[in-house]
């Protein structure tokens, strides 16, 4: 099942995408749908009336998440980013998956504009895959974690690198460096739809990022060091996860400009367009304004 949030005649709805059309459900928001269903999607009723995708405004699949945790789970990204600063990967990174809380009120739709913060000269994208929690839980074991996932979507964790570098010197952050925008894909693809590409708790899906039509990086999600099951186990330790929480994977190796040679691949500026594609999950495309 492909769930979505969309706007039609200025009203927001939760819908199901099938055959290139959007079918409204009985729920006016995806959060209400997730809270009510608790991953029992047989409770969803679709209306007979449907719309072509070009007849609606496709929003982020979860426009207003309850929370947004972003992990740091791809070893190649960590290695590349730290090597560029003359640093090794700290041994503690391998002990458990780490995350920070981002701004869940700053969600950008899949084809919306992203306003460049006025105080950054190093605007970057980060190619990620996110899962959305569909069943409440606390102290969830990795063995049971996948039962708590409603589905998956593309995620771009926009970053102001110069601000980030100043913040981390203080011993906190990133905070303001990530506070302004996160793009989520328009389709929330449920776990059962991707069963054929699962192996060792990891999705075998190709990930690509393009700037102004040129591919600059990407990889395969199966290369991730920590699985979503391990992330959920960590995030839910002594803390409740709720339907509508979003969990980002962290950046796939070469999935951001910070890892690259910035003389050859400069940071983003007004007018640039960033497009991300993840196999089976769709496309997001955002222009910098």
CATH class of the largest domain: Alpha Beta
Query: How many domains comprise the coordinates?
Result: 2
User: What's the oligomerization state?
Assistant: single chain
Output the number of helix runs: 4
> Any idea of the CATH topology of the largest domain?
Fumarylacetoacetate hydrolase, domain 2
Rounded Rg: 18 Å
The CATH architecture term of the largest domain is Alpha-Beta Complex
Shape: globular
The helix-strand sequence is EEEHEEEHEEEEEEEHEEEEEEHEEEE
How would you briefly describe this protein structure?
The protein is mostly beta strands and about 290 residues long. Helices cover about 10% and strands about 35% of the residues.
Give the helices and strands, then pairings:
Elements: E1 2-8, E2 11-18, E3 21-24, H1 30-37, E4 51-52, E5 57-58, E6 67-71, H2 75-84, E7 99-101, E8 107-108, E9 123-124, E10 127-133, E11 137-138, E12 149-157, E13 159-160, H3 161-170, E14 182-184, E15 188-190, E16 198-199, E17 202-203, E18 206-211, E19 214-220, H4 228-235, E20 240-241, E21 245-248, E22 273-278, E23 282-287
Parallel strand pairs: 6-21, 8-14
Antiparallel strand pairs: 1-2, 1-5, 1-15, 2-3, 3-4, 6-7, 9-13, 10-12, 10-21, 11-20, 12-14, 12-15, 16-17, 18-19, 18-22, 22-23
Task: Describe the model.
With 289 residues, this protein is mainly β. It has 2 domains: 1-59, SH3 type barrels (Roll), CATH 2.30.30.370; 61-287, Fumarylacetoacetate hydrolase, domain 2 (Alpha-Beta Complex), CATH 3.90.850. Helices cover 12% and strands 33% of the residues. The protein is built from 4 helices and 23 strands. It has helices at 30-37, 75-84, 161-170, 228-235; strands spanning 2-8, 11-18, 21-24, 51-52, 57-58, 67-71, 99-101, 107-108, 123-124, 127-133, 137-138, 149-157, 159-160, 182-184, 188-190, 198-199, 202-203, 206-211, 214-220, 240-241, 245-248, 273-278, 282-287. Strands 1, 2, 3, 4, 5, 6, 7, 8, 10, 12, 14, 15 and 21 form a 13-stranded mixed sheet that branches. It has a 4-stranded antiparallel sheet with strand order 19-18-22-23, with no helix packed on it.
């Amino acid at each position: 099942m492909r769930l979505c949030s969309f706007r039609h005649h200025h009203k927001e709805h939760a819908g199901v995408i099938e055959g290139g059309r959007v079918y409204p459900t009985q729920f006016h928001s995806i959060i209400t749908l997730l809270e009510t269903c608790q991953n029992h999607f047989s409770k969803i009723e679709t209306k007979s009336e449907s719309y072509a995708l070009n007849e609606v405004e496709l929003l982020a699949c979860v426009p207003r998440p309850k929370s947004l945790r972003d992990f740091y789970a791809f070893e190649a990204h960590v290695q590349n980013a730290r090597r560029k600063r003359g640093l090794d990967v700290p041994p503690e990174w391998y002990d458990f998956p780490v995350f920070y809380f981002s701004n869940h009120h700053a969600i950008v739709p899949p084809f919306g504009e992203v306003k460049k913060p006025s105080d950054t000269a190093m605007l970057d994208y980060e190619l990620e895959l996110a899962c959305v929690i569909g069943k409440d839980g606390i102290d969830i074991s990795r063995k049971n974690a996948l039962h708590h996932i409603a589905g998956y979507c593309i995620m771009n964790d926009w970053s102001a690198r110069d601000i980030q570098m100043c913040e981390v010197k203080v011993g906190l952050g990133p905070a303001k460096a990530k506070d302004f925008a996160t793009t989520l894909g328009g389709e929330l693809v449920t776990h059962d739809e991707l069963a054929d590409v699962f192996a060792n708790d990891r999705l075998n899906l190709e990930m690509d990022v393009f700037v102004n039509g040129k591919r600059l990086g990407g990889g395969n999600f199966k290369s991730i060091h920590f699985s979503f099951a391990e992330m959920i186990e960590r995030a839910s330790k002594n803390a409740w996860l709720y339907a509508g929480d979003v969990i980002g994977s962290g950046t796939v190796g070469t999935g951001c400009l910070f890892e690259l040679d910035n003389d050859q691949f400069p940071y983003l500026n007004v007018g640039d367009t960033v497009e991300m594609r993840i196999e089976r999950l769709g496309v997001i495309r955002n222009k910098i304004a």
